[in-house]
Amino acid sequence: MRRKSLTIWIAPDIYRKVHSLTLHHTVIKLTILALLTGAIGITTLLITLTARYKTMKTRVAALDSLKEENKKQQEQIAYFTDNLKGLEEQVGKLKEFGQKLRVMTSLEPVKTSEKPNSKYGLGGPLEGAEDLWEDAASLGSFLKEGQDGASTSIEDLTVQIVIQEQSFQEIEKALKRQRNRLLSTPSIWPVKGLVASGFGKRVSPFTGETEMHRGIDILARAGTSVKAAANGLVTEVGTMPGLGNYITITHGNGVVTRYGHNKKNLVKKGERISRGQTIARVGNSGRTTGPHLHYEVVVKGKYVNPFLYIPNYGEG
Hints:
Layout: E1 5-10, E2 19-24, H1 25-104, H2 129-144, H3 150-183, E3 195-197, E4 200-203, E5 210-213, E6 216-219, E7 225-227, E8 232-240, E9 244-252, E10 255-265, E11 272-273, E12 278-282, E13 292-299, E14 302-304
Antiparallel strand pairs: 1-2, 3-6, 4-5, 6-13, 7-12, 8-9, 8-11, 9-10, 10-12, 10-13, 13-14
Helix pairs in contact: 1-3, 2-3
């Protein structure tokens, strides 16, 4: 059987001896196989190195991004930490102011060590309070990783803020109640003028005998506006032989005011009126010696001195 081989002739130049190199086909196949294997190995290695390079490049970029994010977080932590003290001072002032308001409105002081709505029953749930708690928890968790104690401070401040918010809601309700009570309490001059006759025993200008004067007489020109001394409901509008044209207003809490000797009544029974509203005109109807307003204040069925409900008496 004829063997297959490859002979290579090598002639350096025309003057030198020609050399020959005979390669068996097996050697040729093995050489080609080795070259192909090497090429495949190198290609695989290059692909692997390229993939690893891309992976490392991505990781480096991600690491740089994390470093930048961490830097920003550290700056935020520093900002919150720097301003935390100021916020604590502001909340402290708010708490002190709230306690003063509660004293002024006769409300029980709030123990701010208690958790909101845990004991004092400050009303329904505060709108947005749950979100505030969640935000505080998130912020506290965020700060906890950066500064020791910051998380606890934020949560404590949140508790105080919620308590004060609820306290102010209660104060607002109390102030509204007191405002309504104040507006319904006689506290202004029904008419400006000189007081001709005060409350209590006096000598009657008609009989000369001692009598009980159940109100005060304020001198004013006929036609002068008569003002309601407080918010209330008109419960009587009529005429009496001695009092002439009169109006009775019920203010609540057992307080009633009466305005007599009017020239003309300007309101009707059942009408709700406001403090300072004109309800009549000064006159001399009934038994009088001249134009004036007879003004009475009745508290729980008892006639009292109207001067107790007129500010700055002596300046009218």
